[in-house]
Amino acid sequence: MEQLVGKERTYRIEELFFSPYACRSDRTKGRLREEEPCNMRTDFQRDRDRIIYSKAFLRLKNKTQVFFSPEGDHFRTRMTHTIDVSQIARSIARSLALNEDLAEAIALGHDLGHTPFGHAGERVLNSLAANGFAHNVQSLRVVDVLEKEGRGLNLTFEVRDGILNHKQSGKPATLEGKAVSLADRIAYVNHDIEDAIRAGLLHAEDLPKEEVRVLGSTSRDRINTMITSIYENSIGKDRVAMGEKEAHALENLRSFMFEKVYITPLSRKEEERAKRMLSAMYEYFLKDRERLPAFYLSLAEQYPIEQVLCDYLSSMTDKFAVAVFNNIFIPHSWALTEKDIEDI
Hints:
Layout: H1 6-17, H2 43-52, H3 55-59, H4 78-95, H5 100-109, H6 118-128, H7 135-150, H8 157-164, H9 175-198, H10 209-215, H11 219-234, H12 244-262, H13 265-287, H14 294-299, H15 305-315, H16 318-329, H17 338-343
Helix pairs in contact: 2-5, 4-5, 4-9, 4-11, 5-8, 5-9, 6-13, 7-8, 8-9, 9-11, 9-12, 10-12, 13-15, 13-16
């Protein structure tokens, strides 16, 4: 093995140490379009790199996770959530001898299609579009169609499948995809709790006592408890699953967060603002598609205009959405000329 280099060495390591249920890098089902392989990186490693260097990934840093345009440096964004999910998914994959590169690639790409203004934006687009809108489906469209000026990233089947099926209702084809799906729920529930406490919407003592007893009183303890539970219930098995007690506690915490944080009078007020902005822009471009940016106008020649409007609006960061809305609907002052200044 010492003489092997590049991806051949990775293949050999996987052969020796991976679980028999892991997805081996040399057994991918391939890409949508054939292309020359890389000598150094496996296909899953290449997918990870393509996602990291994509425009959609860069935009995640300015998209809402829970709180719209939060004041403060330590609230999570869609980017930091994605990194959280990647870290947890890698920990799960490593503990179960699964393919860590595949889990990382799926995790980094799972939210690329998310809207501005978090799940509020997703609900708005879902209500506007004739065929509905779901961020996991849009994430797949981002990597298949929208990136690289319409050429897409041409990712492997396994990464694309994991992105599409990362929601709780999904059924990933690989154990690595299942690890990401669990990691997503673990990350957003625990880290949203931290943000809600930081924002003053919750106090630590408000958390349900039985769930705290089962999982732990801090985010660190809860994440460690759940990863340990996944390991104990999945090691050596063809599954990735949390223990019943811990899974039940996680779902109860998730329900608690919906009641106390996600769906509250304050969040509904913010969602109404997001709805007005996105609805107004959707109708504006639907009536006059010629005002769309050139790339999206070209897409409208191939896809239904309703889909293209979802492509454009979901690609926006929070700040860009506000800026576009203001540019369209807010009256602009005439710029002062030198003569105006002299007359003042």
